[in-house]
Structure formats: structure tokens, C-alpha cells
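Chain particulars:
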Amino acid sequence: MSTSTPHPLDIVIIGAGIGGLSAGIALQRSGHRVRLFDRVPQLTPAGAAISIWPNGVNVLEKLGLGAAIKAVSGGMDAMSYSTLTGELLTRFSLEPLYQAVEQRACPIARTALQSILLQACGPEHVTLGVTCEGVEALADGVRVSFSDGQQIDADLVVAADGTHSRLRNYVVGREVQREYCGYVNWNGRIDAADDLAPSGEWTQFVGEHKRVSLMPMGNGQLYFFFDVPLPAGTPNQREAYRDELGAHFSGWAAPVQRLIERLDTAIVSRVEIHDMPPVPSFVKGRVVLLGDSAHPMAPDLGQGGCQALEDAWVLARCLALHAPDAALVEYNAARADRTAQIMLRARERCDVTHGRDATKTQAWYEELAQETGERVIAGLAKTAAGGGEWLA
């Protein structure tokens, strides 16, 4: 591996979400000039919270943000599954996972995470309310055109513009369609209470191919979500959320009923979950995909944000050790296969959880009744430790 340090680059990042901001931090730490642009007029995270698993926390530690993240995240010490009527299937400690990978998970409010990332990146480097309209390859870089009429020439463009990326098709060389995963997710935050979920536990109820989850997210609150298999395009009517969830979860356990009664529908997000098949390459010339623009995945492994963080760190490391073109080859080799495997595993878990094959879902329920935690923790540890030499 080369140990030479290339000259600093002028880098444009499209998107100021988790991936874009973390890339901005990592690249600035390597001495590059970074400018971020996002089409939204104000940064407002999608969703209430995010579970940052140990591999993502490790990247945040490398960026110097570990203490700040841990100070505002939830303490998640155990995991449990119960039937829809509240009969406990399994409960186990997550401490063996944390000991195995030498890091904890950090469930955290997305607003808190975004604030920490933005301050570390530098708000002065972020321009909002401007859309990337297109890119043009130059001899040694890229020309970026924006909706306000300006054009910027850069050495490198990082497309971190999310699951609806406008630059993905350019990089892949064809139109890439997202695919509906078959279920709708309602999520939000609620004040923690013992009659909803035990303190420090990720509590889940499963049955009828549906799922309800309650996770500590810090600040005395729980992150909750409801998963329901539904056809795409089902009407989304905020004023009907409580009644709709009440109908979907009629007869479920008392904590689920209390959650529905107490939720503030004004701050609940409702999302039809999509992913896409893995693409062969994240790089075209000096344009590189990162985060959800490269690998939008079902959230069933909790790895979407973690993989964006890994992307950011690996891209910065590759650029610190190689000239740009060679660095992008290294980045693509390090990240395309890793994220493809996780995308496929996340879709497989999604299909089992949400009843694509009812016999497999029923078998999973039966397995949970015998689960000691070893199998789940082994899977989590495998994911956390699978980033390769760039993340060691």
C-alpha cells in the first residue's frame, strides 16, 4: 500500500446528511478543502432516531466525536422479543456483543447526531437550498452545475444525496429503480416509561408479520416504530395515524396499546420502505457515491447510517494514501462488496420479519422462543467486524 500523501483536493459534497457531513469531517481532517450543498432549505433529519451499532460508533470515535455521541445517546444494555399478546419469547444482555467488539451501540436522536456532525464539519462549509443540476467530466476533475446558476470546478464530487440521489444514474450509467420492500414504517419518539418498556432495553413485539419496537434514544425518551406489511401507495393521512395503528394492532399487548394512545401524531413519520439491488460500481471518473446514494438498504439490520459512516472514513483514508484516481479504485473495491452483502442480508431479514414467506416467518417466531442471544449477537458481531483493513 502506498504511503505517499497526495496534495490537498478541492472537493464538493452533494448532500449534508449523515454521510455527507461525516465525509466532510473526515476529508477536512486529511487537509482537503470541502464544500457541501444540500437541496433542503433547512436541515431536518428524516426520522426520530437512529441506532448506531458498534461499527458506526468506531468511525465516530476515529473522527473525534465518540464522547460527544455517547453523552447524548441511549443506554441499550439488553434486547427482548415478545409475542403480540405480550408473552416473553427471549430476553438477553448485549454485554457479550460489546465485549466481543470492544464498543457499545449508541441509539441517538437524529437531530442530536446531525447537530454534532454539523458543528464538527463547520456550518460555514454548508450551503442549503441549492440543488445539483448535473456534472460534467473535466480533464482532471468535475464541473458541477447548481440550481442557482453557479458552476463550480472541483477535483472530486462526492454524491451523498441520499436514497433519491440525482447522481446515482450518472455514476451507474443507467436508470436504477428503487424497489418497495413490502411494508410501511411509522416511527417517532415518546417519553420513556416503565409501562412501555424496561429501562435500558430494546423491546420488540412480533406477530402477524408485523413488528413494534421501543428503543432508548437518550434524553429520557424512547424511539418507537411500527412495521406493517401493506401495498405500495396506501393512503398516508396523518390525522388517521392513531386509528390506523389501532386497527393494525388491535388485540396486541398492553404496552403497544399505551404507545398508540400516547403518541403525538404531529411528530410521527410514516415511510414506505424501499431498497435497491446492489450496483457494481460507486465510481465514475471523479464522481463517487457514498451512503444511501450508493446503497439504500432495508433498515432491518440497522446498518444504513453505519455504512454511510464507514464509507466516509474509508474514502478519506484512501485519498490520504493515494492519488485521486487510484484512491477511488481502492474505495470502490473496499466498499462495493461490503455494502452489497449487507444490503442483501438486510432484505433477507426484512422478508423474514414481514412475512414474504409465511412459513419462514413462523419458523423465526419459533426460533425466538429458543433464542439465548448467542445467535443474534454472533450476527451483530460479524457485521460490526466486517469492515476490513481500512476500518481496523
